[in-house]
Protein: Odorant receptor
Amino acid sequence: MDFSSVNRFNGLVNFVCGNLLPLTDDATKFSKAQKLYSAFTWILEFTYFLVTTFGIFFTTNQRIFQDTTVNQAVVIEILILGFYMNLRRGLIYRLIGQMNSVLINVETLKECVEKTVKPLQRPLKLYTIFATVTVVLFCGSPIYKVFKKDQFSYNDFRIPAYIPGEPYSTGLFIAGILFETLGGFYTILKKASIDIYLIHVITLLTAQYKYLSLELINIINGKNENINKSDLESLDNERNEKIEKTVQIELKKWIRHREVVMEIGKILKNLLVLNVVYVYLNCIFRFCFLGFLLISSSGDYFIQALVCSYTVVCLMQVYVLCFCAQNLLDSSTAMTHDAFYEKWYAYGPSTKRIFSMILISNKMECRLSMCGVVDLTLPTFMAILKNSYSACLFLLKVK
Structure:
């Protein structure tokens, strides 16, 4: 069991979109063909960004607000976070190395990882598939115009884009639609890949905290594999020195394991210092203009259905991300909650002292950000919806 084998879907999306975010702590793992494919996708993405950005200057303000804003917000997010994540590859390799060191082949840990990671795979797959299909249909929707006329302009594209040679022939217009569709496909897939990757890291760290909670209970109750259960029976009558020392050794091992997990949490916080803030602001911006687009695109029911579908899956993705961050925060401070009600008081003073130190240090929260407003927990999700709604109402009043 390691970082890459726990969630195969994460690796699949990471490869198809061309992000090539690290899945192992080996920097030479990717082949030359994969690197060339990744370079092609990023060149295509940057070209798509330039074409749609220049298209802003050749269309109306209404179309800029309706069709360009959300697309540009996502593309800019991909370019910034993609560049940032690749800039911090050394930190990611270090995080994966630390994570693999504590992903030991213990049945309890395997169960914790499976229970934490597996329930999230279905919503993430739905998000990736529906978001990709929706964007492809949205970008390719103007194709019906080729049956109505034979000359086309910048504004005939679904997302206003600058392509030299206006007015366009039918062949050039179809090529432009294919380019926009391909650009939209890689944009949303790269976005989904980064989201799935971050959620994967967060859930693995959460599983470690849950495993530590169960392992502490097992040590206190003498269910650890290194503790002789027959010796444990004598604790209620006369303290057994052998079992006392064994429990202390296991508690110290537990503390060392927790130190590694906490170090992973610090690395993760350093890695996500930009991601968390940018995702928070970008979500407010996106949902604001998605709401504006949904309300203002009256009459075109097909586009409204696509926008509504995309909005729903985006809300689901942000909720899953905030849920995972909240679960990580709760798990990091709940390691000793259940163990506190076990018979730790039956041990000697030295063992009690170690357990007391563990209790005191259990208040160290694992957050994704130093600022509680943008740390992507469930209250943050509600704040995103509230701020997006307020901004959308303001835009409608201005309109």
Remarks:
- The radius of gyration is 26 Å.
